[in-house]
């Protein structure tokens, strides 16, 4: 087609970590990508700034951020400008894929070399697989960017084949019949208003820094069943919503993301493992290939794709990987699917921005992050959302790993301002092995409607708050000073914490509470909070009586906990009500 015959090139004149300067004589476009040719490798970078060359009025200098390891690069190396912005390949085969931060297939690379080497390239999507294409338009039809021209089955999904979003109105000149084709073959030819022909394939490249548009953006409303009780009861997230999930190191952010991968009710999960430990990422790839999706019994990877850009990979690629992953999420949303994008961790992403702006000599903002970090974070979360016209949604849940667990730092603060929900993990709860360590009393909030009424939510939170303050009284001035009625309230709150908020993420039944179960649990919780339990004091003094009450509650909690692990059938699930009623009335079998 209309490829330029003269390739535009430049020469490397300065290297400063991932930031390089290139002298050029042609035209260069802001934001376009370029390849640095280093020996037999080509390293991808992005133009950040274009300046005049003080030494040569004929030339210009561009400043480029390079996403790949520059080992071996030297002054004078050739740079080829591509004319294309940073982009992602979209098409069938995205699901089940595992890539690095620049969409090189890690599966493909692992077949050629067990080690990841700088500059290694691999196709983003398998070019051999044949997909069963069924056309849905015919010659003479008018189409434009985003319109559907056909579909292929991709696992359990119908993958719609779209006209590339950048294209204007065109007329279909020809289209193949139902047939198996790979992503490199042309399935249709479309002619635009300038009479230019465009070959349409199953896959196309899409810039990643400009969002794929919504057809009709709508307010996220329907709650997602994540299966994690503390979330679904107290800080729910809706399809198309956004959540920030900060927590100190080791508090359980990554484990929570994996639990969401397994149990959150969504069609598709896009995961961006960004800047976290490499060993952790390798575990994910291995585990997830073997794990079964509890709702289909198939491999979890059938509904997933993963961008793995670990701490051992170039920092600059972290920035790219999050945008690339978001674009994949938007693409499936446009097709009408409910997608959840998980990013672990957005702090590592922000670090990449900090390093870059530091090298560029920008005036730093708080803690040396770029001044516009709040806008950048907001911009990222704003790409999530639901679309009433397609029925699809993109939910974005990002972990934040603030140094020292200090939530006052800029990335956590900006995330708080940008997301509809916030799940704060606390060191105290993690230390006490109260998992998931989401602390409902510290920072955890949600603007979304959940599975229980706002007033029920408030009532639970109020009880937990009182329990917390009684707990503090006990540890400061002692149990003696706590009146009996307060002590019973404290035991109720402790029961809610132990039996409802704490949840074993590694047990098939206990790990996931769906709405039907949640309703029974909430009824039980509300009944317990509202109840006046009559314990008989008899001859006991207050201390003994408290001990007696505690032992009764301990038994009850054990009973409830057993129910968590064992109740599977509808009838068994319903038995929780009986257990609570019997306990309140202090019947024998409570
Ligand atoms: P982070 O990502 O916040 O640094 P991780 O998710 O890696 O922390 O969790 C650290 C460790 O804490 C895990 O290896 C695991 O032993 C424990 N842990 C975290 N969450 C849970 C959970 N829900 N159930 C049981 N153990 C957990
Ligand atoms: Mg982690």
Describe this structure in words.
This protein is α+β, with helices and mostly antiparallel strands and 590 residues long. It folds into four domains: 8-84, Beta Barrel (Thrombin, subunit H); 126-202, OB fold (Dihydrolipoamide Acetyltransferase, E2P), CATH 2.40.50.100; 217-449, 3-Layer(aba) Sandwich (Rossmann fold); 455-584, Bovine Mitochondrial F1-atpase, Atp Synthase Beta Chain, Chain D, domain 3 (Bovine Mitochondrial F1-ATPase, ATP Synthase Beta Chain, Chain D, domain3), CATH 1.10.1140.10. Helices cover 33% and strands 24% of the residues. The chain has helices at 106-112, 229-234, 253-263, 278-290, 316-334, 346-360, 373-382, 410-418, 427-431, 454-477, 484-501, 515-530, 542-566, 570-584, and strands at residues 9-16, 19-24, 32-38, 41-52, 60-66, 78-85, 87-90, 98-99, 131-135, 142-143, 148-154, 157-162, 170-175, 179-181, 186-192, 197-201, 204-207, 217-218, 242-246, 268-274, 304-309, 338-344, 385-387, 393-400, 421-422, 445-446. Strands 8, 18, 19, 20, 21, 22, 23, 24, 25 and 26 form a ten-stranded mixed β-sheet that branches. Strands 1-2-5-4-3-6 form a six-stranded antiparallel beta barrel. A four-stranded antiparallel β-sheet has the order 12-11-9-14, with no helix packed on it. The radius of gyration is 28 Å and the shape is globular. The N and C termini lie far apart (77 Å). The mean pLDDT is 93. It binds adenosine-5'-diphosphate and magnesium ion. Magnesium ion is lined by residues 253-254, 276, 344.
